[in-house]
Amino acid sequence: MSKRKFFLLIVLMSLSLIGIISIQAYYINNSVKNEKDRFTDNVKTALYYVSNTIQKREYSEYVYKLQDLISNNAVVDTASIRNLYVVQENQDSKETVVYRLGNLEENYKFSSPLFDIGLDTLSVKRVYNDRETKVYKDISNKKGDADLSTQQKLLLLDKISSTDEILFEDVYKDLAPRQPIRKRVSENEIKNLLQKKLHDLGIDIDFQFAIYGNDLATKVQSDDFEYDKASTFSVPIFQNQNDGSPYKLLVNFPDDSKFILSSIIGMILMSVIFTSIIIIAYSSALYQLVKQRKISEIKTDFINNMTHEFKTPIATINLALDSIRNPKIIEDKDKVMRYLNMIKEENKRMHAQVENVLRISKLEKNELNISKDRVELHDLIYDAITHVELIVEDRKGYIKTHFDAEQCTVLANETHFTNVIVNILDNAIKYSPNAPKIDVYTENVGTNILLKIKDQGSGMSKAAAKRVFEKFYREHTGNIHNVKGHGLGLAYVKRIVDDHQGYVSVESEKDKGSIFTIRLPLIS
């Protein structure tokens, strides 16, 4: 897959994930908003219900008292009749249709022992409502009515019918506000009414309430009520004749947020869980894509380097064989032996490369049998140095040892641990552009021995130092073949050191060389 397609795929996947998360967030936010609105509507409904119920209760109490007063031989102080007439006359049918809406008002004035409002006398208005529709046929031909005008005809019809109801609203709205608020309503009444109505509306959480007059607290309130403009609900209570009121019934809910979220918590949790799964799956897929792409690049690099590693010895072997076939050379035993030695060395070189790959493969599958014995680490270091000292001398370099460790007995596999040291030394030689200068140190630290291999080569970046022990990893230097290798040597080193319960690390700086440190536990 090309870089452009790979980048486009990641962008599309990322945009899709962002879109899904945004839609989920919008849906959750919308659901929370809808639940808040529904909660607010239900609370307002409950408050208006309580306000109206309390006002109706108070009004009923006044009606009962006023009825008792009027029935107690009260004398009408004044009376007045107010009527509205609508008259329609049909000349063809000789019919007259009269619609009448009438009010009879009776005013009473007397002293009141039933209302403790601080007044000597009390005026009460008693109102009778009357509605009537009548049809008259040829009303003008009735005896004695022939010369009546329309106005006189209406006066003739002006009679009050049965009483519909007794209205005391004016008296109630005038008298009730004179009472202290604590005498008009109690905390228990408000609490019981609110509790019942809220329960009917599905709101079963604690609440606090109060009645405020002219934006000031009254004595009618619950113990823990605290006014908060942002979260307190309010409706007017005890409205006056102008439908206004100085009093407000207020209520707030300490746990309203939890209650609102509780109704949709299941949906929110499911949404969060599924969104998290999508994010994890996306991250994992993206990680695998990037990892596979890197592995593909590393393997391509590995194949190219391995090809280069094999091409050189194969070409050398072919040249040596061609030279041996030459009749002039085949008779020269010294030259034949020289070419045969070259073939043997190049064959060993290829065999070592194959063995390195096989060892890593077996380590990955835990099939490599590593038996350990008591060995002297200094002896293993000397043995490893003999494998590379000819190459170092050929390049006019040196390997110096600085053995400061008094104890160097470890439990190790002689062959594999020697290969570990050889690989580090070989790495130091390959990455020294000039004559390789290598120093090997040992020292005791507690119950461990430290082995440090320091070179003065090209070094590596910090990013490369973190990944240098990964399989197939090689730092690119512009031309991947300028230093031979396949990225398996140091991976092998780490696996063997780990198997020996040791620890390996590297400190490096570009153009200043590297220091590889191996720590192994000592045995007595």
UniProtKB/TrEMBL annotation:
- Enumerate the GO terms in the molecular function aspect: kinase activity
In this chain the Histidine kinase domain maps to 305-524
Segments passing through the bilayer: 259-287
Read off the InterPro entries from this record.
BphY/WalK/GraS-like (IPR050351), HATPase_C_sf (IPR036890), HATPase_dom (IPR003594), His_kinase_dom (IPR005467), HisK_dim/P_dom (IPR003661), HisK_dim/P_sf (IPR036097), Sig_transdc_His_kin-like_C (IPR004358)
Its UniProt entry gives the catalysed reaction(s) as: ATP + protein L-histidine = ADP + protein N-phospho-L-histidine
Reply yes or no: does the keyword Ion transport apply: no
PANTHER family for this protein: PHOSPHATE REGULON SENSOR PROTEIN PHOR
The EC code for this enzyme is 2.7.13.3
Specify whether RNA-binding is a keyword of the entry.
no
Keyword annotations from UniProtKB, A to Z = Kinase, Membrane, Phosphoprotein, Transferase, Transmembrane, Transmembrane helix, Two-component regulatory system
Its recorded name reads histidine kinase
